[in-house]
Design goal:
By secondary structure, this protein is of the alpha/beta class. The protein is built from 15 helices and 21 strands. Helix 6 links the parallel strand 8 and strand 9.
């Protein structure tokens, strides 16, 4: 039985209730976790608030050294963390190892940022006066993480929040509670003081809502669905909190007639079926130039049918289960919609064999004859379902890729540098890849999207620190007399 971590202690939920997490590949029980409520959040926020003054006054390089130690410990326990992830959310080991490495890289990047926490020094409009800026922590950060990257995304949030001098309350998804528990244990071992980090498990509608509403939380960072993000923005906005939202995607990969087709096939297979399509950056639309459409589609179907599906702990597997029974049923409902809208080329069923019957597996599914207005081309399915759209030339391809309410990731395969640069300039997305799939973000660069994908903030790289800090502008007048700025003399 696992517990919350509040004020330096592992504790049960006040309700005494728990929820059971199961392995989506086997249906076996992983463990029992606290079903927390508002009172647990209140205790966690109180703890974080009390710890804030001392933590925020710790010199930045000292906080950076703790993040480096955290990275070292994650590296030491990398295989353990990867196996925990695979068991609780299903990704194959080669992916969960990459997820943990992303968390490690984020910690090491933060260690470097601790000595690069730059402000600006600028000229004053008056003599004998200087102007400069500092970044200051906000206070208590409420972090709400999803299940599909159980190590990377909590670390994307926790590490910059902590380095910036904030204390925090983390609520992981109920579908990935185990990894976060282990991360908190390693953070404690890294030297984070009592009260600075708090973990509250439980349902989003209760725990997430309490975090969003709490008056002593100054910044909320959320990754998840548009519907939940809109609710958080509504609730937190009434209290004028800083809110960072990273939401959905309906990402497209364009393949032009001059593309390296084998490379593009590798890209779409990885983008559409890596993580079983359960990434906000997953390739869910494939936009093919009409000249290569039929050839490319045949090649793709052949390769998709050969993907090895099974328990992610088996090193030979290429695709694991979807996260839950309910998610598999949602995917299947979209597949039934797709069968009415377009042509099913492969997949379209629950995947079963004598090793997968107890899990939540779904076949790699491809539809052709899709147009840009169909539901399977517009709505986020979050599963291994790919909609193939035929276009005539670059202009139509860009029109199609921009035709959804989302704008997270995008991709174009072409050997024409002019076409590539046209796409980069005209595609409405926060991320664009040239001759690469729509997935594969690197931790030292900004991550996020436009339109309904988010609210303008960017995790990753140097930009994430803008989420967790406030700018303080300082004027130092050494003239020895009253100087009046903004007065026309």
């Amino acid at each position: 039985m696992y517990k919350n971590y509040i004020n330096g202690k592992w504790v049960d939920a006040k309700s005494g209730e728990n929820f059971i997490k199961i392995n989506p590949a086997t249906g076996e029980e992983i463990g029992s976790f606290p079903y927390s409520g508002k009172e647990d959040v209140d205790d966690a926020v109180k703890s974080a608030k009390e710890a804030f003054p001392k933590w925020s006054k710790l010199p930045l390089p000292d906080r950076g050294a703790i993040m480096r130690k955290f990275g070292d410990l994650m590296m030491e326990h990398k295989e353990e963390l990867a196996r925990i992830e695979t068991q609780e959310m299903g990704k194959v080991l080669k992916e969960t190892r990459g997820d943990v490495q992303e968390a490690i890289d984020t910690a090491y990047y933060a260690f470097g940022e601790a000595t690069r926490f730059f402000g600006h020094t600028v000229p004053s409009e008056l003599p004998n006066k200087i102007c400069l800026t500092f970044k200051r922590p906000i206070g208590v950060a409420g972090l709400i993480a999803p299940w599909n990257f159980p190590a990377a995304i909590p670390c994307w949030k926790m590490i910059p929040a902590l380095l910036s001098g904030n204390t925090l309350v983390l609520k992981p998804s109920r579908e990935a509670p185990w990894t976060s528990t282990r991360l908190i244990e390693l953070l404690i071992e890294s030297g984070v003081p009592k009260g600075v980090v708090n973990l509250v498990q439980g349902p989003g509608g209760i725990v997430g809502e309490a975090i969003s509403k709490h008056p002593d939380i100054g910044v909320v960072s959320f990754t998840g669905s548009v519907e939940t993000g809109s609710r958080i923005a509504e609730v937190a906005g009434k209290l004028l909190k800083r809110v960072s939202l990273e939401l959905g995607g309906k990402n497209g990969q364009i393949v032009m007639r001059d593309a390296n087709l084998e490379l593009a096939i590798d890209g779409v297979l990885w983008g559409a079926f890596g993580t079983t399509g359960q990434r906000c950056t997953a390739t869910s639309r494939l936009i093919l130039d009409e000249e290569i459409h039929d050839k490319f589609l045949a090649m793709l179907i052949d390769r998709a049918k050969k993907l090895k599906i099974g328990n992610g702990l088996d090193e030979g597997m290429e695709m694991g289960p979807v996260i839950s029974k309910s998610q598999r049923e949602k995917i299947d409902k979209y597949v039934q919609i797709g069968k009415e809208e377009a042509k099913l080329e492969c997949g379209g069923n629950f995947y079963t064999d004598n090793k997968c019957d107890s899990g939540f597996f779904y076949e790699p599914t491809i539809f052709s004859g899709v147009n840009k207005n169909m539901r399977i081309a517009q709505e986020e399915i979050f599963g291994p379902v790919l909609a193939v759209i035929k276009v005539c030339g670059l202009n139509e391809a860009i029109d199609v890729i921009n035709s959804t309410k989302y704008g997270l990731s995008s991709s174009i395969y072409t050997q024409d540098v002019n076409a590539a640069m046209q796409a980069v300039e005209r595609i409405e997305a926060g991320i664009t890849y040239v001759n690469g799939p729509t997935i594969g973000a690197e931790c030292h660069l900004p991550f996020g999207g436009v339109k309904n994908t988010g609210n303008g903030h960017r995790e990753g790289g140097w930009t994430v620190y803008e989420i967790f800090t406030e700018f303080q502008t300082v004027y130092i007048d050494y003239s020895g007399k009253l100087q009046r700025a903004q007065l026309d003399d």
